[in-house]
Specification:
single chain, alpha/beta, TIM Barrel, Immunoglobulin-like, 2 domains, 6-stranded antiparallel beta sheet, 3-stranded parallel beta sheet, 8 helices, GH, Glycosyl hydrolase
C-alpha cells in the first residue's frame, strides 16, 4: 500500500498491548521501507486494561502501569539510533486516568508533584479520539466538526480539553486553554456511523468538513475510523469510506473529488497573501486560504449548518482575472466561472466549496 499510494503508518501498541520490543522491530521494518510516520501508545486503556511488567493497570485500576509503559516506550524509541528521529504519539483516552500520573502532559512540568516524577516525558504529540458525534453530545447540530476540533472547553465531545486541559474523569489539571491551541496534536480516530439523521450523504459531507476543521484548528494529522468497514465484529460497521466488499461510499467519492480539486505535486515555499473579506460571516461559515505551486489561490469556504443554507459574499481587494468555483459534492469540474470580478456569491449549507483565483 505504501508503494502504491505513498501512505505512511502510525505504528502503535494497539488495545491492551505492552510489547515494546515487538513495536520497535515492526517499526524498523516500516522505517526501512520509508513507510513509518510515528509511534503510538496504547489504544483506549479505559476500555482495554493492560498488564506491564507483571502489574495490571488502566480502566478502573491504577493508571501508574499505563504511565510507566508510555514513558518506557518513549525512552526506547529515543534511545534507538535508527528510530530516534520519529515522533512518539501519546496514548488515547488519558482523560480517564484514575490517579494523577501526568498523562495529560507531553512532559510533566517541574513542581507538579504527581504520581510520576517531574520531567517524565510521554510523547511528542498528544492524541485524541474526538468523534464529532458522541454520547456526551449526540445528534446532528451546527458546527459539528468545528466544535469537535475546538482545543478548549467549547468542545462538547471527547476532545482535546477533556483529555489534556482538565481530565474528564477526575478533573486533573493539565495545559491551559492558551497552551492547548498550539500543542502538537493528532486525531487517530474520528467519524460517525450511518444511522438515522446521519445518512450516507450527511456522513460524506461531514467527513469533508472534518478534515478542513481539523487542519484549520492546527491538528497535525487526522485519521477517520475507518477506511473500510470491518467484517470481524458486529455493530459499528458503517463508519468506513468503503463497504466490506470495497464498494465506495459517497464519503470516498466526495473526498476523492476534493483532493483532486486541490491536488498539487509541487510545493509553494513562500505562499503569498490575498486580501479578501466574507461580509457578515455567520459563525457556521469557515474559510481556509491555500496557494497552488502555479501561483493560483484556492480559497476553501465551508458551511457547518445542520439543515438549510446561508448565502455569503466573498469580496476581494481588487479585480481577479478569473474566478472558478468547485463543489466536491457535484464533481471535479468548475460549476461556475466568472471573469474580471472582485466578488463572488456562495450558497453554503453543510460542505465545502473551493474558489480558485
Amino acid at each position: 500500500m505504501h508503494r502504491k499510494t505513498g501512505i505512511k503508518f502510525s505504528y502503535g501498541l494497539m488495545s491492551g498491548g505492552a510489547d515494546i520490543p515487538r513495536l520497535l522491530a515492526g517499526g524498523k521494518k516500516l522505517a526501512n521501507a520509508g513507510a513509518l510516520l510515528a509511534f503510538e501508545g496504547v489504544n483506549e486503556p479505559n476500555n482495554w486494561p493492560l498488564t506491564y511488567q507483571g502489574e495490571k493497570g488502566g480502566k478502573n485500576l491504577s493508571w501508574l502501569t499505563v504511565a510507566k509503559l508510555q514513558n518506557d516506550l518513549y525512552k526506547a524509541v529515543k534511545a534507538d539510533k535508527q528510530l530516534s528521529a520519529y515522533p512518539v504519539w501519546s496514548l488515547s483516552e488519558n482523560g480517564a486516568q484514575t490517579d494523577n500520573t501526568g498523562l495529560q502532559y507531553l512532559k510533566i512540568p517541574v513542581g507538579s508533584n504527581l504520581a510520576m516524577p517531574d520531567g517524565t516525558q510521554y510523547a511528542d504529540y498528544v492524541t485524541c479520539h474526538n468523534y464529532f458525534s458522541h454520547p456526551s453530545h449526540k445528534g446532528l447540530y451546527d458546527n459539528q466538526t468545528w466544535n469537535a476540533a475546538d482545543p478548549g472547553p467549547l468542545c462538547r465531545v471527547d476532545g482535546l480539553f477533556g483529555n489534556y486541559g482538565k481530565t474528564w474523569a477526575k478533573k486533573f489539571n493539565g495545559y491551559t486553554e492558551t497552551e492547548l491551541i498550539d500543542l502538537p496534536k493528532v486525531t487517530t480516530e474520528a467519524g460517525v456511523t450511518i444511522d438515522g439523521t446521519f445518512t450516507e450523504e450527511k456522513q460524506a459531507r461531514l467527513y469533508l468538513n472534518l478534515y478542513l476543521a481539523q487542519f484549520k484548528r492546527k491538528w497535525s494529522y487526522t485519521a477517520i475510523y475507518l477506511l473500510r468497514d470491518r467484517s470481524d465484529e458486529s455493530g459499528n460497521q458503517t463508519f468506513g469510506f468503503y463497504k466490506p466488499d470495497y464498494t465506495p461510499r459517497k464519503a470516498a467519492l466526495y473526498l476523492h473529488n476534493l483532493t483532486t480539486i486541490l491536488a498539487d505535486k509541487a510545493t509553494t515555499k513562500k505562499p503569498q497573501s490575498l486580501a479578501y473579506t466574507i461580509t457578515d460571516k455567520p459563525d457556521i461559515v469557515h474559510d481556509l486560504l491555500l496557494q497552488n505551486s502555479n501561483g493560483k489561490f484556492q480559497l476553501v469556504v465551508w458551511g457547518e449548518k445542520a439543515s438549510g443554507s446561508v448565502s455569503v459574499d466573498v469580496t476581494f481587494a481588487k479585480k481577479v482575472r478569473e474566478i472558478k468555483v468547485y463543489d466536491p459534492v457535484m464533481g471535479t469540474s468548475a460549476i461556475l466561472s466568472v471573469k474580471a470580478a472582485d466578488k463572488i456569491s456562495l450558497n453554503l449549507s453543510d460542505h465545502p466549496m473551493v474558489v480558485e483565483l
